[in-house]
Amino acid sequence: MIEPSSTRSRLTGTTSTAGVPAAAVVPLHRRPVAAVFRALVSLAALTGVAFDVTDSHDLGRLFSYFTVQSNLLIALVFAWSAHRAWTARPALSPRVTGAALLYICITGVVFHFVLDNASSGFSMTAQRTQLESIANQLLHTVTPIAAVLDWLLLTAPGRFRFVFAAQWLLYPLLYFPFALVRGALLSPGTDGRYPYPFLDVDLHGYLGVLGNAVVFGLAFYVLGLVVFLVDRFRPGPRVRP
């Protein structure tokens, strides 16, 4: 009986590995640097969320923020990636890691250029406690920068596909009706009824909010395309991924 994993040529006497898994031909290796770094990123995201939870008086409002949701996703994906890197298992699907990267980049970009910018028209600048300030920096600055560094320095290039940029928009598109439905269920005048000023129906009306959503959605798609193009042409990591 011929073994299913290999066949021997009667003419050459060589063994074909056509049915052998790639891991059996090229052994996977532990990636301790990537594992430790990703574990620290996951810890930073969880710490930021924990600080916000400790200082929050409205957990429903807190967990409605895209910032908190994207950081929880980063914590999960990076913890999972750290485990796989430490145990010499294959990397996560680039569709998953790319989505997490894009969402945390959206968090950082929107915060620094829109929400924390008094001239943007959608500013959310306010007095913060010391704990809130630390959480703010962890969630909006540390985790986005760390996720980008992990991508550029510890991840093999060329794994993202063009179609991913559109697929990654599913979560932001679903977040839009989530924010509107949540706001509609709360009483008018409720503090934080809508999570962000550009989604505030009381200020802009439904038509205005829809226009804002289209503009932001297009911007997010462009950002996804930028991630795809950079990944396509960037050099490989210097540290073994």
UniProtKB/TrEMBL annotation:
* Species the sequence originates in: Streptomyces morookaense (Streptoverticillium morookaense)
Mind telling me which residue stretches traverse the membrane in this protein? 33-51, 63-80, 92-114, 134-156, 168-186, 206-230
Superkingdom of the organism of origin: Bacteria
Protein name as annotated:
Pr6Pr family membrane protein
Q: Which UniProt keywords apply?
A: Membrane, Transmembrane, Transmembrane helix
Q: Does this UniProt record's set of keywords contain Nucleotide-binding?
A: no
Q: Where is the signal peptide?
A: none
